[in-house]
Amino acid sequence: MIPATTQAQLLGGMIKAKKSVTIINIGIPATITLAQNAYYFVASVYDTDYLPYTVPVVPATTATQAANGVADPTLDVQGTITTTGVTVSIPVTATGSGTLPAYSTTVTIPAAAAQDGISRDLMLSWASQGYTSATTSVTATLKAVGGTLNAKKLDINAGIGNNYLGVLLGQLVYPYNSAGTVTTYSVRDIPGIPDKMFGLADNGGIVRHNFLYFPVTGEDGKVWLGNNLGADYANLNSSSFSPVTQAASYLDYHAYGSLFQWGRNPDGHELVTWSSSTACTMVNGTTTTKNDNPANALFVIDNSAASPYDWRVTSNNNLWTGGASANNPCPNGFRVPTSGDYTNLINLGVVDPSNGMTSALRLFNSTNRSFTNGNLSVYTNFCGGQNGVSVWTSTAPDATTPVNASVFSVSDNMMCVYSGRITSSYRGNGLSVRCISN
Question: Are residues 161 and 250 in the same domain?
């Protein structure tokens, strides 16, 4: 609660200080600082003409933009924020112990931003909660007031925008430091993030990458895709298509996704059709012919007597180094995470299987397609669950391990206690990819 003496000075819950710096004094201790400029995304889309998809070069709008005038299968997802709301995390930096005072604030979403034309208030709030120097986030709630907010359904080509953040619904203001200086919590409406190869034929000459991903804000405060590349939930042609759905468990194979060879384009070699948590069909076959620029969609196997075990003739450390790198498999506006990005998640406890399914990212997968024969391995443990996470990073190896590329993993021991680490895997192996915003 804001102290009564301070409330009398507030206008709309804010005090204007010098240089137009807004202050909200709720008594945040000096030993904790909340992250600034947080995001929450609502996926809401209606489109019957979205192919060919055009990479956005202007800000997002609620307008309709025809692709080519030819009808495509209807995309219709109503994004909502209910009166029950959603639990969200705001990253914090804490240098000691204390209690964060309770806080709440509201913003009015205009009727024009609602599909049903009904204006709603959104409330961001958190209860008083203790913290220590080990605390990495505070728990808050975002909810609609008086009825469900039905976000405007957006057009694919018009509603994403050149910042890949969609349309702003509203901004809530909250104090982030002991001085009471405020920052914004932006609630954004977005139709989804199309795959890099959305509507395009791969090296097999077939359009097989019609994946639409939903962005989420991770516990690190960064924007990620909510599913692995190639997940059934993102696949417009899958009966499981539901872009806002994430893994329900570590055995949810609809969230497994594709298996990429490190540094390679999404040319079709990576595509997998999952039939269970331990079984799948590889969409394309294998070849023993290495090529720096494959013209086919075949998975390259390497039975050499010694390393390097690569799909390329000449290894290259720079193929996935960023959003503009030659073979970046992620959608426009996104890139393969670095080992440092994943180290941050390890430190936040996000990928520990004991709490991974409560994370905003639902980050997991322990499948591997072998470079030696193209066969699948699924790692399980006697506890009955997956043994963690195996996904590629973009970080190239150092000089002492010239044939390996970094992979992020979680390992288990015989007591089912999990620990995060960065390890390595041969570039010829097939592993999952999760993307982070540039």
Answer: no
Answer whether residue 24 is part of any domain: no
Owning domain of residue 268: 193-438
What distance in Å separates the CA atoms of residue 88 and residue 42, rounded to the nearest whole number? 13
Given 142, 175, 191, which residue is the final one in a domain?
191
Provide the token pair at 249. Answer: 């468990």
Same structural domain for residues 231 and 183? no
- In order of 139, 207, 216, 262, the CA distances from 342 in angstroms are 22, 32, 16, 16
Dihedral class, residue 169 (left if φ above 0, else alpha if ψ from -120 to 50, else beta): alpha
Of 340 and 116, more confident: 116
**Residues in a beta bridge with 143:** 123
CA–CA distance, 219 with 136 (Å, rounded to integer) = 8
Whole-number Å distance between alpha carbons of 197 and 344: 29
Residue 20 lies inside a defined structural domain of this protein: no
Q: Say if residues 400 and 231 touch (Cβ distance below 8 Å).
A: no
* β 182-190/193-194 pair status: unpaired
Its pTM stands at: 0.90
Q: What is the DSSP string of 271-320?
A: -EEESSSS-EEESS-EES---SS-SS-PEE----SSS---SSSS--TTTT
- How many domains does the chain fold into? 2
| Pair 384, 236 in one domain | yes
Residues belonging to the chain: 438
- H-run or E-run covering 339: helix 339-348
Dihedral sign of CA atoms 203, 208, 214, 219 in order: negative
Taking alpha carbons only, the member of 22, 188, 170, 174 closest to residue 90 is 174
**pLDDT of 92-140, one tens digit each?**
999 999 999 999 999 999 999 999 999 999 999 999 999 999 999 999 9
Residue 3 maps to a domain: no
Cβ contacts of residue 400 below 8 Å, gap of 6+? Answer: none
